[in-house]
Amino acid sequence: MRIGELATAVGVTTRTVRHYHHLGLLPEPERLANGYRDYTLRHAVVLARIRRLTELGLGLAEVRDVLADEAGRDLVEVLAELDEDLARQEVAIRERRVRLRALLDAEALPAEGPVSPELAAMFAELAPLSDSPMAAKDREMLALIETTAAPADRERVMAALGGAFATPEGAARAHEVYVLLDALVDASTDDPRVAEAARALADCLPRELLPEADIDLPHSRLRSSGGTPTDSFLRAFYADFAPAQAAAVRGALRIVTGGRS
Questions:
Q1: CA proximity to 82, closest of 65, 64, 59
Q2: pLDDT confidence of residue 234
Q3: The whole model's pTM is what?
Q4: Sign of the Cα pseudo-torsion (7, 11, 15, 21, in order)
């Protein structure tokens, strides 16, 4: 048989046959005098088995183990591992579908979505602040934290924020702070409103989220060998604000940490 005939008989492409040759899965056949490969029924049998194994979900490295007698791994062992892997995938798929259903059932998705139902509810509580540029930055940062923090730390962060902001009173305090910070967009760093905004922000910050809480957030993951947040992340963090706004955020952190930040 020619390579095209072999590929057609087994239901694969000639490119696949050549790839299996390259990987050593399918032995090279003898060549005719004209240089063309001359495939036998044995090649078709092996190629068909490779196809069956890959259709089950085995990777080509695992297929090689099954085909190689010296590998010491029989088909039952490989298929058992594949079954366990598929079971884990099924659990993950079910969990993702639950999350997707919660998102689809929501009345509206936040611009920063997808986020957890808890964070989406918090964003909804702060919906009147949707026109605030600083509120938008906060939502982006919260989405970043939710994505990168360790599960236990993420739960602590969401609980702290929920207690602080997911109430009408908390939303009102946040609104006051955002108004003050938004007003600093074109201000100088020595503007007296910087200190006012810093104090308001310090009063608004949940104490559970202070640096000494040692929460594994993005900035605490990017630590130097000395155990402090890396300068590169902090520079990027503050560079996202106007100078006066960054000064207010720094001032708030100094207030809540007693000057340690």
A1: 59
A2: 74
A3: 0.55
A4: negative
Q: 119 with 147: CB under 8 angstroms? A: no
pLDDT tens digits, 156-168: 777 777 777 767 7
Amino acid at residue number 128: P
- pLDDT bin (cut points 50, 70, 90) of residue 206 is confident
Q: Are 87 and 50 in contact (CB under 8 A)?
A: no
SS (H, E, C) the chain: CCHHHHHHHHCCCHHHHHHHHHHCCCCCCEECCCCCEECCHHHHHHHHHHHHHHHHCCCHHHHHHHHCHHHCCCHHHHHHHHHHHHHHHHHHHHHHHHHHHHHHHCCCCCCCCCCCHHHHHHHHHCHHHCCCHHHHHHHHHHHHHHHHCCHHHHHHHHHHHHHHHCCHHHHHHHHHHHHHHHCCCCCCCCCHHHHHHHHHHHHHCCHHHCHHHCCCCHHHHCECCCCCECHHHHHHHHHCCCHHHHHHHHHHHHHHCCCCC
